[in-house]
Structures are given as C-alpha cells and as structure tokens.
Amino acid sequence: MKPEGKRRYFLFFLILAAGIVLLSAGAELLARTNPERLRTRNLNYSLLKKEKENSIDVLVAGDSESYSSVSPMDLWEKFGITAYDIGQSGQQIQGTYYMLKTAFQTQSPKLVLLEGNTIFRNPGELKYFENLLLEELGYYVPVFRYHNMWETFVTGERDWRVTYKGFKIRTKIDPYMDGDYMVETEKSKDISPFVEKYLKKIIRLCEAHGAELMLYSAPSPKNHTFKRHNKLMEISEETGIPYLDLNMRIDELKILWDEDSLDGGDHLNLSGAVKVTDWLGDYLTDQYDLPDHRGDDQYADWDALLVEYRKAVEEETAEDASDEDETDEADLEA
Q1: Which residues contact 232 (CB under 8 A, 6 or more apart)?
Q2: Which of 13, 55, 241, 325 lies 20 to 30 Å from 124 when distance is taken between CA atoms?
C-alpha cells in the first residue's frame, strides 16, 4: 500500500476513534443528567457515578437476590453505615466484575458483600462470552451501554424507577408455602470454570483496591439449596474468604415466609429485607471496622434521603393496605 493510502486509513480510524470517544462522553453526560431516560439495568451504573467520591463503605453485589436483601437506608438509619446495592436483575458474574470496576473508579469501599446466587448462573458458554463482550464494550465504550437511551428521547418514553442507593421498595406479599428447603446433604453444586475465573478476578480486584470481600447467601427458598451452601463453603475454605449463609439463620433473622416473601420464595420483600438488614448491621459492625457516619455534616444528604425513603415506605404500605381493603370488599360482595 502506498504511503498516501496508509495515511488515509490512519486518518479514518483516528476520526472514528475520536467520534466514539466523543459519543461516549456525551452518553455519560446525558445518563447522569437524565436518569429517567435510562433503561432499568443501566440506572444503577449512572446513579452510582453520581455518588460523592469515597463516600460508600459497603458495596452489595450480585443479581436480584442482592438488592432485594439489603436496604442501605435502613443500614444508614440504624448503624450509620453507608452502603450501595450495585446488583442487577439476572446479573452474571462477569457483569458483577465490571460493576465493581465501575464502582472502584470513584469509591474506596472497606467491604464488598457478594451474594452467591450469581455464582451459580450458567446460561452456557456461548451466552457467557456474548454477555462478556457486551459488558466489556459497555465498560470501556459507554456509548454501547447507553445505546438504547436515544430511543427514549425520540419516543418520550420514561423508565424512571426510584431506588434508594440501589434498593427498591417492594411491599407485595406472595408467601412461600413449601416448608423446609435446606435439606442436609454432603453433595455440592458445580460451578463453571468461567465462573471460577471471574470469581478469582473479583478477589484480585478487591485486594487491589484494599476492600475486604465476603460471600453471603440471601434467604431464598426458590434458589438456595444445601448443595449450593456446600459449594460456597468449599470456596470459602479454599480462598479464605468468609461466607455467611443466611438461609441457615432463618430463625435468628425472624423471617416468616407468609409475610416476608415477595414472590413465592424467590426474593424478599421490604419486610424481609429490613429483617436481614437489621441482623446484618449488627453482624457487620461486630466483624468489620465500619465507621458510623451519623451526625457527620458531610453525610447530610443521607439524612435527607432517609426522610424521602421513610415517606415512600409509608405511601407504599398505605397503598398496599388500600388494595387489600378493596379486595376484601370485592370478596364480600361476591
């Protein structure tokens, strides 16, 4: 190829790269200033980046079991711990890894809680690599992560769902009725080599940023089993990472499955999450050196958000009670 042709190719790719960088910067700016335009899965990425630098002491990572089990505002109110739920619905472990990398860009947490359900997600090797590519592109080239945000500007559609440091208030009750699910066995559940690889990457990532890592399993009759418990215990013993299985402490947590289940034993509702958070707050303050920031003027915005959170809980609870009254009246009329 002639030198002139090489220069043209070089200039083309230079312009292309510059365009992608500019588009990514624009997408990041639009995401931060227009969160209501974001699809739900991208909302946490954008809101997390708006948090004050180095203000979060605990990150709660994983799939939907993570953000359904820990309420940061209740942890703040009762213990002064600043926590953020960075989990996403259906999140696989490579997504957890890149979410943590995103968090570590602006935060220096003392502790990362990794909910174990994501470790057992196995959609198959091909799907894993497809999702890995999407996560890498989204992390390094944000315009790919926020690509569908443009649709909402065209259609006017808004997908705004209020979260409180990543936690959603969900008060619906759908009981779990199938009895004891932690049937003791010596068998353990296998995990894929791909998951093992990314779990090691998460361990190294936390070590590099000076964050302690703890595995935990949220109460979930629909997902958790004694085989999974055994596997996570094996991982804990091999790596030295502490593991806390809350499914083995249902009585201590005072979980009642006819009151604290959102969807038949899959996730906890608000009531269940508050019970877990109360217990977990005592556990974390006993096991880890986590500061109590209450009364610190630098965290006044947490107090302000707590007021909003309490009001939202009252409104949601009152709305559910009203719905129940209407249902009761309809039953009586029938």
Answers
A1: 116, 119, 215, 217, 243, 245
A2: 241
Backbone φ and ψ for 216, nearest 5 degrees, come out as -150, 160
Q: What are 9-65's pLDDT values in tens digits?
A: 545 445 544 444 444 444 455 555 555 555 566 667 778 888 999 999 999 999 999
| Helix, strand and coil in the chain, % to nearest 5 | 55, 5, 35
Structure tokens at 166: 């990543």
Nearest to 213 by CA among 99, 122, 113: 113
Q: Give the dihedral of Cα atoms 127, 113, 104, 23; nearest 10 deg.
A: 40
Domains of the chain: 55-140+163-333 (3.40.50.1110)
Q: 320 near 175, Cβ under 8 Å?
A: no
- Taking the CB of residue 219, how many other CB atoms lie within 10 A of it? 29
Q: Are 178 and 221 in contact (CB under 8 A)?
A: yes
Q: Do the beta carbons of residue 106 and residue 66 sit within 8 Å?
A: no
Q: Which amino acid is at 182?
A: M
CA distances (Å), origin 37, targets 32, 86, 111, 146: 10, 19, 31, 10
Q: Would you place residue 181 in the very low, low, confident or very high pLDDT band (cuts 50, 70, 90)? A: very high
Contacts of residue 240, Cβ cutoff 8 Å, sequence gap at least 6: none
Residue 290: both structure tokens together: 């986590």
The whole-model pTM stands at 0.83
Dist CA 261 CA 75 (whole Å)? 20
